[in-house]
Structure formats: structure tokens, C-alpha cells
Amino acid sequence: MLFLGFSHRICLMILLFVPTFFNGVESLHRILLDTDVDTDDFFALFYILKLNRSEIDLKAITIGTNGWTDSGHAVNQVYDMLYMMGRDDIAVGMGGEGGILPNGTILPDVGGYLPIIDQGYATAGYCRYRQAVPVGLGGRLDIDSNYGFRKSFLPQGKRQYSPLRQPTAQQVMIKTISSGPTVVFLLGSHTNFALFLLSNPHLKKNIEHIYIMGGGIRSQNPTGCCPKNSTSSCQPRQCGDHGNLFTDYTSNPYAEFNLFMDPFAAYQVIHSGIPVTLVPLDATNTIPITKEFFETFEKNQHTYEAQYCFKSLKISRDTWFDDQFYTSYFMWDSFMSGIAASIMRKQHNYQGENEFAEMEYINITVVTSNMPYGISDGSNPFFDGRTTPKFNLERNGVHSGHVQTRLRDPVCVVKNGMGKCQDGYTKEVVGPSGVPVRVAVRAKPNQNPKSALDREFFVSFLDVLNQRENSGLFNFSTQFPHYRGELHKPDFRGKHLGKNVVFDMDMSAGDFIALIYLLKLPVEEINLKAIIVSPTGWANAATIDSVYDLLHMMGRDDIPVGLGDVFAMNQSDPVFSAVGDCKYNKVIPQGSGGFLDSDTLYGLSRSLPRSPRRYTAENSVKFGAPRDTDHPELRQPLALEVWESVVKSLDPGSKDILVIGGHINHGNTDKGNVFNVPSNKFAELNMFLDPLAAKTVLSSELNITLIPLGIQRKFSAFPKILKRLQLTKKTPEVIFVKRLLSTLHHLQKTHPRYKHMDIFVGEILGAVILASDYSVLKSTFDVKKIKVSATGYESVDGQIIIDEKQGKSMKVLKNVDHLGYYNVFANRLSDEKQSAVVGSFNRQTRL
Ligand SMILES: *[C@@H]1O[C@H](CO)[C@@H](O)[C@H](O)[C@H]1NC(C)=O
Ligand SMILES: *[C@@H]1O[C@H](CO)[C@@H](O)[C@H](O)[C@H]1NC(C)=O
Ligand SMILES: *[C@@H]1O[C@H](CO)[C@@H](O)[C@H](O)[C@H]1NC(C)=O
Ligand SMILES: *[C@@H]1O[C@H](CO)[C@@H](O)[C@H](O)[C@H]1NC(C)=O
Ligand SMILES: *[C@@H]1O[C@H](CO)[C@@H](O)[C@H](O)[C@H]1NC(C)=O
Ligand SMILES: *[C@@H]1O[C@H](CO)[C@@H](O)[C@H](O)[C@H]1NC(C)=O
Ligand SMILES: *[C@@H]1O[C@H](CO)[C@@H](O)[C@H](O)[C@H]1NC(C)=O
């Protein structure tokens, strides 16, 4: 009885408290924002961070790894932006190694790297939708590096990506949403959030509302139209399309990028029963960045965040591929964040009244497959070859038709017409297949008609970004006022330089160690003339900055670095060369042990000193750009240009090539290492990643020495090399190499995703052999007649064939003395000559 009375009283107290509780904080909205960190995404992020925190409180950011950026670059940019804004309290979630089992069980921590339809157990997989995103200039390279401004402008805080310690997107979503009512903002693909909803249906009740920038319902794309007086030769491109897939509208004129990255995920979100507000192209097309807005923004940069956004906007304009920037660049995500904030400030606002856009309820669905439904044409892994469809989907339902398989899927391309596939289309429908969604249909004009800014939101955007409250604390140069961006170049006067070497690297961890070793070889023996970076393997192009930083550390800012083609040979699209296939590099994991770790050097790239040289999107008409940017002299040179200038500077003479890679299989017993293509047992990754290039090199007239997988494997044990380094003098480069190798070793022992780490140790062998001192290494070689298979068939491409008739004769490394090898390596690194000029980022910032 006593207990009953007691609990009654508690009930009463709660009842009494509820109204005051609501009165006090009713206006407070906790926000979780999922973003792929594209330029307009961080415009939105800064806008939200600057709003009144007792009204709009950003609690967490999750990063969409299936979109316009690469995970390692995206996550560190977010950490740095939050640090600049003094907001290290905001949780950041990214990636995860869980997967989806064949029976549809979603494992915890699924990383969201792949669209749900293609998500299996691993993070490696084909780029069915994502290949619509350009990879190099104007695409992921520029977004990853924010055109070069990420490293020149943003400060560097303590938070950063670190392998196996990074909170995952799913963890952060679960934690944030289970701690209270949450409003979710989706600025990229819906993969992360759909996976969250599918795995945590019990937490749906905590989601107040979902705001989405994406889709196009009644939109008519205003770009790519022919002027009225044009000649008949003008071909309208996207004019009037619903969507904005400018790289692939010949197959799909209906989709908008965000939703196209994962239509099935978008379907799950929009059909979840949770109230949704959509800001589609219908609305964003009515708020193009005008010349007047641009010029007003240029004059109003009173905070660091305004500066950062303006710089990014300006270089986007200056590098825009045609003359239509002001009619084809819109306020996308930032517009959505403005609309959302304005709606939320008003209570009980079911119609979504707000200052910036007109709203309307429209019943829509998201198209995930194309009619006719119920066919099985090999395009749809939810159904094809399965007795029970995945996730118990309905056999003849909306998900059961043809699913766009790739760029210019022949099923989607119609002769002389607009493509017919609708994957990712937010289609207006009547009847039970649709759901009512609150839609922004049009941007509101500025209430002050005399203003140069024609949209109300422009005024708010500039006001909020420039206001003092909640503004950024510093940028890189004010954080480190003593940092001097000086180049370090050695003085070679009076030295006789040795053999000229050009190092071609794909930026795997092993390549970085090999590069450090090459820089330690006496210049009288080996003169490293240039570095060529091939972003077709283990790392994405923007990782070239780590190469610059390493050279800076070693005092070798004199060495030119050329950026190679972002696609393997014959993989770029014949119609639009900025996009292409991932037929070969799809075998590299996106997450742990793959791109994520190479792009961050396993979390260590930020401990390198920061070089004044870095990738930048600066460009010049002289090199074929549409216009000169502000600093065309800073343009990133291409591999071919660097190569040609090196060749020109050399005396004619013999040219030898040392190739690290290839696998010579003896009697079909020892396998290659293309672990994600089971049908290809004998290829080695370096050859497989670009078979045509390998074939071209290995069949050339040059003298070749091959260091194949078999011998690399003999030298790939971590404990031996680490033990030997333990005993040497600690130069900064010994410290760095040791940290990297111990990290790899530790990860290998800790998590199955890092099982393959030893392949990187083997890659060092080439650098050591290059300046081999026969008396120590006792290296022996065979001569073999070799050919590489590059037929276009995955199951054989990249394999080495011994062919006595057609093969090219080359030297193949057979054996090296173990003890000698580890001694040479460790002694060289610990040599105090040619040692680092600036040991680390910390040292540099203290100087
Ligand atoms: C922020 O919002 C709260 C609650 O609505 C309000 O009391 C406060 O005055 C606002 N602060 C500013 C600086 O506008
Ligand atoms: C799916 O497969 C896993 C592993 O084989 C098993 O543990 C799980 O129970 C299965 N789930 C269903 C729903 O069949
Ligand atoms: C950082 O901010 C300072 C002060 O506003 C400015 O002078 C400097 O140019 C900024 N740094 C960069 C790299 O833009
Ligand atoms: C079309 O008209 C515009 C402006 O009226 C003019 O600038 C342009 O040169 C004309 N183009 C052609 C092909 O006549
Ligand atoms: C829109 O959806 C609602 C809820 O499902 C339904 O009641 C309404 O009839 C639909 N409207 C149209 C035009 O289909
Ligand atoms: C690769 O492309 C080149 C040039 O476009 C072409 O000549 C060659 O036939 C192609 N090779 C294959 C295997 O597709
Ligand atoms: C290959 O090596 C031989 C012997 O060292 C040399 O004579 C020849 O010029 C070299 N060929 C090339 C293409 O460098």
C-alpha cells in the first residue's frame, strides 16, 4: 500500500511537471545530420552550427560514405571544421565493418559504403550507382581536398580518424536517437539512415521528423537548354529533365544524385511512416547562385566560416566546366537547412510554413527498379537466384524489376532519346503506393524587392554565416601563427648525383615506406628525380597530399610529383571521361584495411608536417582549363608532364624498370592476392588493378626486373623488421616507419579485416634492391620470358604467363639474404645523413 501511494505521488509529480517541461524547452530540437561532406553540405553544416543553440542543437554528424567524398578525407575534414567552430562536443560517426548476410540479416555497424542492394559481408564492392560521381577534377578529388583549401585553411585539432577507434555511423545514430527525440537531416545518400531504421525499428518513435535534400518531383532542370536563337547544332542536354545526373542522363534523366546513390535506402526512409519534409530540385532549381549573390558574399566575409565557404564557392565557379555557373549551381543543402530551421522555430507547424520556401503536400514514392516487375534479368540481387527474396521483398512488387546496373546500362539507353531508367526518381503517384510528403516547391523572393539578393534565403544565409555568435575560433594560420610555409630543398652543389630514378606509387602503406627508404639512399648513388602517383590502386587521388607532406618532412620539396590518371586503362567512360568503371579497383575494401586507411595512412598522415605544396584545383588556360583561376601557377602537374620533363632532362642511355608485383605461380599451388575475386586465383594486385597498363609496360622495349609476390612474401614478417628497427638509432624517419609498421602489425593481430597487412611489408623490397649492394644482399635473379594477361576477363586478368615464344625476357628476383636485407633497411633509415628536416606536425607547429 505504501508503495502504491508512493508511486501515485510520482505519477502526479510527473503529470504536474510535463507542461512546464514542455514550456521550458519546447523549442529545443536535437539534430542528427548525415552528410557526404560535399561543398554545399558544409555550407549547411556551418549555417546550422551558427543558429541559436537553445533552439537548434546539433548533437551528432554521421558521414555518408556512399557519395561524393571518400571516407578518410571526409571524416578528417569534418573533425577540422568542428574544431574550427569550437564544437568538439559533437559526436562524429563514420563507417563500420558490419555487413549484410545473404539471408538479409543486417549485422551491427554496417558501414554504409555500398548501396543496400549490393551490401554483402565486406566493404569492397562494385560501384553500380556511385560511378555516376566523377572521380578526379570536379569530382571526388576536388571534394576530398576541398579544392586544396581543406589543408591550407582549416585548423587541425586533436580529433581525427584512427583505425578501429573511430565511432561508427550506426553507433552514433543509435546513441543519439535513443537519448531523446531527434530531428534527422539527410544531405547525402540515405544508406546509413535506412540501415539504422531497418535494424532499430523500436527507435523510430524517437525520430520527430526527417528533412531531406534530394529528389526531383515536378522539377524541370533548367540547365543544358539551347538558347532560343541557337543554331540546329545545339543539342539540349538536361534541359527539362526531372533529375540532375549530368554524367548519366542518357540512361536516367529522372534521378537526383543523393537519392540515386541508394534508391532502395531512400525508399525505406520515405516510406518509414516518419514525417518527412523534402527539399527537392523543384525548390533548389529556383535558387541558383546569382552573380549578385556571389558578389555580395565576396564583400561579406566576416568570419572564418564565411571565408571558407566563399573560397570554396569561388573556386567551384572558377573551375566550372562551362560558362553556365550562375544558372546551374544552386543552393542545395544549405537551402534545406534554412527551410528546416525556419519551420522548426514555429510550433505546431504542420503545413511547414517558413520564411524561405513555399510548401505543398505531395504523395510520392521512390522508384527502386524499373517496370515490368517480377522479371529476373540478372540485374537485381534482391531476387536473382534466390528462393526467398532478400528482406522478404514481394516477388512482383516495386523492387522486383530491372535495377540499373551501371553507367549507360544498355537497358536504360534509348536510341536518340532520353534514357528510360527511373532508379532513384521521387515520383508523384496516386493511390496506396505513395506517401504524403511535405515538399518545398519554390524559393520565396526577397521581401525587400530593392535588394540585390533576389531570394529571402540569400539574406539569411549571409547574415547567419557572418554573425558573431557561435563563430569560428581560428583558421590554420591564426592557430599556428609561427608556421612558415617555406619549401625545404637540399643543396646539391658540388655533388655528383647517382642513378636517376622515377618512383611510381599507388600510395599504399608499403609505398610510403619505400619512398622514405629511397629518400635515405645517398644522392650520389640514387637520385630520385620525380614521383608519379597512380590513384588507381590502394588510395584515392587526394592522398597525394601525404606524398607532399612526406617530401616536406624529408626536406625534398624539390622533387616534382605528378598525378596520374584516376582510371585504369580503358576504364574511363568514352562519352564523359570524368566518370568511369571500377572493374578492377572494386577489389580494394572501402573501409578498414582499404581506402579509408590508405587515405589517412592508418591515422598517421596527420602527424606528418604540413607541406606548403599540396593538391589544388587551381588551373590554367595554358593547360586546357576553361579559364585561369587566381593562382594558375600552383596547378597540380600531371604524371605525363612530369615524366616528359624528366625524360627531357636526361641523357639518352639505358632505361631500366623495376616492377614490384606480379605473381609467378609454380604448379598452381601458390595463389595470388586478389582476395576479393575468387575466380581469379593467380593474379597479383598491382597487375590486376590495371592489367592493360601492366601489359604495356611489361611488353615494352625497356629492361625490366620483376620483384614478384613469391619473394615479397618471404620478407613480409612484421616481427623481424620491427625488432631490427627497435635496435637502431631513432631518426624521425625510423620513428615514423616504426609507428606505421607497428600499427599495421597490431591491426593484423586485432581484426580479421586487417589480415592482409603483410602485403605492404613485401612492397619495401623493391626499394632496397634498387641500390642493392651485392656483397650484403646477395640477391640472385632468374631470367624468364613473361607476358601479362589483359583480356578484359576478370578471372584471368593480371595473371603472369611464362611464354617461351611470345614472352618478354626479364630478370626476376629469386632470392635475397634475409639478415642482410633487414640490416640494410634499418641501417639506412637510422643514418643521420639525409635525415628529416622537420620531424613531425607537432615539431613543425612548435617551431
Ligand atoms: C535563443 O533562444 C532562446 C529560446 O528561444 C531565447 O531565450 C534566447 O534569447 C535566444 N538567444 C538569442 C541570442 O537570440
Ligand atoms: C541468417 O544467417 C545467420 C548466419 O548464418 C543466422 O545466424 C541467422 O539466424 C539467419 N537469420 C535468419 C532470419 O534466417
Ligand atoms: C586566416 O585568417 C586570417 C585572419 O582573418 C587571414 O588573414 C588569413 O588569410 C586566413 N588564412 C587563410 C589560409 O586563408
Ligand atoms: C543569341 O542571342 C544572344 C543575346 O540575345 C546573343 O548574345 C548571342 O550571340 C545570340 N547567339 C546566336 C547564335 O545568334
Ligand atoms: C495521399 O496519401 C494519403 C495517405 O495515404 C491518402 O489519404 C490520399 O488519398 C492520397 N492522395 C492521393 C491524391 O493519392
Ligand atoms: C583499350 O583502349 C584502346 C584505346 O582506346 C583500344 O585500342 C584497345 O583495343 C582497348 N583494349 C581493350 C582490351 O579493351
Ligand atoms: C638494356 O640493357 C642493355 C645492357 O645493359 C643495354 O645495352 C640496352 O641499351 C638497354 N635497353 C634499354 C632500352 O635501355
From TrEMBL:
One of its GO terms (molecular function) is hydrolase activity, hydrolyzing N-glycosyl compounds. InterPro entries: Inosine/uridine_hydrolase_dom, Ribo_hydro-like. Residues 31-340, 654-820 form the Inosine/uridine-preferring nucleoside hydrolase domain. Keywords: Signal. Residues 1-27 form the signal peptide. Pfam families: IU_nuc_hydro (PF01156). The keyword Signal applies. The keyword Mitochondrion does not apply. It comes from the Eukaryota. Belongs to the IUNH family. This is Inosine/uridine-preferring nucleoside hydrolase domain-containing protein.
